[in-house]
Amino acid sequence: MARSEEAFYEQAIRRIQGLIVALGLLGAGALGLRLGARAGLAFLIGAGASYASFLGWQRLVSALAPNAKRRSPWFVVRIVVLLALAYVIIKFLGLNVAAAVGGLMVSAAAVILELVYELIYART
């Protein structure tokens, strides 16, 4: 029995969110062991901002769908505020900026891993 498109996308989104969390925690742990706790914390902050950005884009896409509920258009402002807050935290604590930027790439890596998963396990 074929899955409905909506169920397919919901499962993909759940897998991507899980991958973001897993990659963020694994990356923070690895950098924490290799370069110190500050680098791990910076990566974790970047991964958190990446996760928040992914959720913002997810909300935008669902708001563009037909028969979508009316949502607040402030998602861009929330992302900018979150990134500004992360920048201030990194500068104030003197954290590794390269590690934080690496953390920002976590959602892109998770989406690529999901694409590879679907290419390997697609049953069409």
Any overview of this molecule?
It is a single chain. The chain has 124 residues and is mainly alpha-helical. The protein has one domain. Helix content is 82%, strand content 0%. It contains five helices and no strands. The chain has helices at residues 5-35, 37-64, 75-93, 97-104, 106-121. Helix 1 packs across helix 5 (106-121) and helix 2 runs antiparallel to helix 3. The longest helix is centred in the first third of the chain and has 31 residues, at 5-35. The chain is flat. The protein starts with a helix and ends with a helix. The relative contact order is 0.17. The mean pLDDT is 85.
Q: How many domains would you count in the coordinates?
A: 1
Rg over C-alpha atoms, rounded to the nearest angstrom: 17 Å
Helix-residue proportion: over 70%
Low-pLDDT parts are none
From N to C, what is the helix and strand string? Answer: HHHHH
Strand content: under 5%
Mean pLDDT: 85
Shape, principal axes of CA atoms: flat
Distance between the termini: 11 Å
List the SSEs and their pairings.
Elements: H1 5-35, H2 37-64, H3 75-93, H4 97-104, H5 106-121
Helix pairs in contact: 1-2, 1-5, 2-3, 2-4
Summarize it:
The protein is an all-alpha fold and 124 residues long.
Comma- or semicolon-separated keywords:
about 120 residues; mainly alpha; 5 helices
